[in-house]
From TrEMBL:
Entry membrane topology: Multi-pass membrane protein
Coiled coil: none
Claim: Amino-acid biosynthesis is one of the keywords in the record: no
Subcellular location: Cell membrane
Pathway: Phospholipid metabolism; CDP-diacylglycerol biosynthesis; CDP-diacylglycerol from sn-glycerol 3-phosphate: step 3/3; Lipid metabolism
Transferase recorded as keyword: yes
InterPro entries: PC_trans
EC identifiers of the protein: 2.7.7.41
UniProt source species: Congzhengia minquanensis
Protein name, as recorded: Phosphatidate cytidylyltransferase
């Protein structure tokens, strides 16, 4: 990669890190608003990629139910989860009803695409708010960030330094086996360091569970990235947008986080790490 492009990527990444830290340390309601805004951007980017933005009925339904999902992020985690189940049932019903009433405009493929993109864009990410609402939520939410971004960064550098064997060339030609191993190693190392920091801050850290979560995140984060590549290939898109210089759209930057967030939430719900 040319230095100018790498410089652009690094500057953009640095700005994103600063914004992320400011938002994360803000009050919970501010954090949830920021997560909701990110959900809207992701929803728009994928809607455009899926070529759904020209279908007015679908767009209105998607944004209405996306907004309802986002409101669940302001609730405590147990209540929020119950609300998500209820919203999903009525979302599916509404989509199917409109596929009958407006059958010339909306077909069943639109229903399936619409359901997927709202769940993927909003429901996965809104679990960040559920984590932030937990006891010690500020410390716990960094597990999602570390579990998504550190494996991605480690894979990038390991792949560039040692990459020789293609991972899944048909999906992402630049991914290598060495990069994938680097991602898992990076996750374990970063979680260990973070665990030590928490321990030094007098948190009661369960290191075996923390390391197990690191291994899971190291794998899941890569599938989040690869899944986004599958979507882009299916719709012949290079990137999901141009919002972030050097990275593409917001989805291109947080595709791993979209996958990792619900994994972290449910893991620490049933297997507390602090």
């Amino acid at each position: 990669m040319a230095w100018s492009k790498l410089k652009t990527r690094l500057v953009s990444a640095a700005i994103l890190v600063v914004v992320l830290l400011i938002v994360t340390f803000a009050p919970e309601w501010v954090f949830t608003l920021a997560v909701s805004a990110a959900c809207f951007v992701v929803l728009h980017e994928i809607m455009v990629t899926f070529k759904q933005e020209t279908k007015l009925s679908i767009v209105i339904i998607d944004y209405i139910f996306a907004g309802l999902y986002m409101l669940s992020g302001f609730l405590r985690m147990d209540t929020g989860n119950q609300v998500i189940y209820m919203i999903t049932i009525f979302f599916v019903m509404t989509l199917l009803i409109f596929s009958v009433v407006d059958h010339r405009e909306i077909n069943f493929n639109d229903v399936c695409a619409s359901l997927f993109l709202v769940l993927y864009s909003v429901v996965f990410l809104i679990h960040l708010s559920f984590i932030r609402h937990m006891e010690n939520g500020l410390a716990l939410v960094f597990l999602a960030f570390i579990g998504a971004f550190l494996p991605d960064t480690s894979a990038y550098f390991a792949g560039n330094l040692f990459g020789e064997h293609k991972l899944i060339e048909a999906v992402s030609p630049n991914k290598t086996v060495e990069g994938a191993i680097g991602a898992v190693v990076g996750a374990v190392v970063s979680f260990t360091i973070y665990g030590v920091i928490l321990w030094m801050l007098d948190f009661n850290v369960h290191f075996p569970r923390l390391l197990l979560l690191a291994l899971i995140c190291g794998v899941v984060a890569q599938f989040g990235d690869l899944s986004a590549s599958v979507m882009k290939r299916a719709y012949k898109a290079k990137d999901f947008g141009k919002l972030i210089p050097g990275h593409g759209g917001l989805v291109d930057r947080i595709d791993s986080l979209i996958f990792v967030t619900p994994v972290v939430y449910y893991f620490i719900t049933y297997f507390p790490v602090i």
